[in-house]
Amino acid sequence: MFQLLRTVGLRAFSMASETYTSGTHSAAFVTCPNDTVARDLARGIVEKKLAACVNIVPAIKSVYEWQGKIEEDNEVLLMIKTRSSKVPALAEYVRSNHPYEVAEVISLPIDQGNPPYLKWIGDIVPE
């Protein structure tokens, strides 16, 4: 029982003592035409330390205007967790390796989250 209480107490202390500055990290989003492109981009992004993690979300439907016409396509979404300072390099990597003429790369600052997870992002992605 003592060990369980000690573990819970240490975990609570650890989470409370972690500090995170809002906006240090970002979640970026990239759409891809298919799973192969998505996997190749995701692997390259993580290998180049442009992000700590890339989630591949299959089977999204995108509706958008392109060259004066309303288009509707099946796509794959990448959810990318990185340092905000890495977003420009991430965008450049995507533009250089993506088949779309205009690749979607948007990011939102992460305001809050699980402190150990946010620390992990910082540990994996160098400044």
Give a description of the structure.
There is one protein chain. The chain is built from four helices and four strands; from the N terminus they run H-E-H-E-E-H-E-H. It has a four-stranded antiparallel sheet. Helix content is 39%, strand content 32%. A hairpin with a 2-residue loop joins strand 2 and strand 3. The longest helix is centred in the first third of the chain and has 16 residues. With 127 residues, it is of the alpha+beta class. The termini are far apart. It is elongated, with a radius of gyration of 18 Å.
Summarize the structure.
Helix content is 39%, strand content 32%. The chain is an alpha+beta fold.
* Overall strand count: 4
Oligomer: single chain
Number of helices: 4
Biggest β-sheet strands, sense, barrel: 4 strands, antiparallel
Question: Rg from C-alpha positions?
Answer: 18 Å
Percentage of residues in helical conformation? 25-40%
Mean pLDDT: 90
Give the topology.
Elements: H1 2-17, E1 25-32, H2 35-47, E2 53-66, E3 69-83, H3 87-97, E4 106-109, H4 115-124
Antiparallel strand pairs: 1-3, 1-4, 2-3
